[in-house]
Every structure is written in structure tokens, then in C-alpha cells.
Automatic annotation (TrEMBL):
InterPro entries: ABM_dom, Dimeric_a/b-barrel
One Pfam entry name: ABM
Transmembrane feature ranges: none
Identification of the protein by name: ABM domain-containing protein
Occurrences of domain ABM (ranges): 2-94
Organism: Streptomyces naganishii JCM 4654
PROSITE patterns: ABM
Domain of life: Bacteria
């Protein structure tokens, strides 16, 4: 398993709404086209209306690289910065979990 935890901070309320729309459109394509993407979850942060967190879990590093190569992901990456004031990315090394069918 390979994962990411990403925190995005939007510039303002209008940027947050536009970012959420971009995320929704991209997420539909991820769900439809990426069997190696095990979890792609996006959350609003309670009490911090401009923040979004993504939890991404991929079958393996190759599935992540496949995800990153998709035209719609590249479009998301090129468009997102106009809405954001900050991005923090943590790469995750999977140890264990519930609800995830994994062989180590």
C-alpha cells in the first residue's frame, strides 16, 4: 500500500467553492477509472471552512504513478493552485488498518 495525506487551504470562500467543484469532477473520474486507487477521500475540516484534507490510499506505488499519469489528474494539479494559499503533503507508509484488504 502507498498513501498520501494532503491538507489544502483555500484562499477564500469563493475559491473553496470552486476548488470543491474541481475536486468533485476529478473524483468522479478517479472512481470510474482507477481500480488501483483503494481510497480517495476528501473532507472539510470542522471549524476551518477553508481547509480540505485528502486521504489517498493506492494498491501500490505503481497504482499511484498510474493515478498521477491520468490527464484528469494532471489537469487537477495544474488548476488547483489558483484556488489555494497552501498545500501540505505527507507520504504514508501503510502499517495496518481495518476495511482494507491488504497483503504485506
Amino acid at each position: 500500500m502507498f498513501g498520501l495525506f494532503v491538507r489544502f487551504t483555500c484562499k477564500d470562500d469563493a475559491a473553496a467553492a470552486a476548488f470543491d467543484d474541481l475536486v468533485a469532477r476529478t473524483g468522479e473520474l478517479i472512481r470510474a477509472n482507477e481500480p488501483g486507487t483503494v481510497v480517495y477521500a476528501v473532507h472539510r475540516v470542522d471549524g476551518r471552512p477553508l481547509e480540505r484534507v485528502f486521504y489517498e490510499l493506492y494498491r501500490d506505488k505503481e497504482a499511484f504513478e498510474e493515478h498521477e499519469s491520468k490527464a484528469y489528474v494532471r489537469a487537477f494539479l495544474s488548476q488547483r493552485d489558483q484556488y489555494l494559499s497552501a498545500v501540505e503533503v505527507d507520504r504514508l507508509d501503510f502499517v495496518s488498518g481495518k476495511g482494507v484488504d491488504v497483503e504485506h
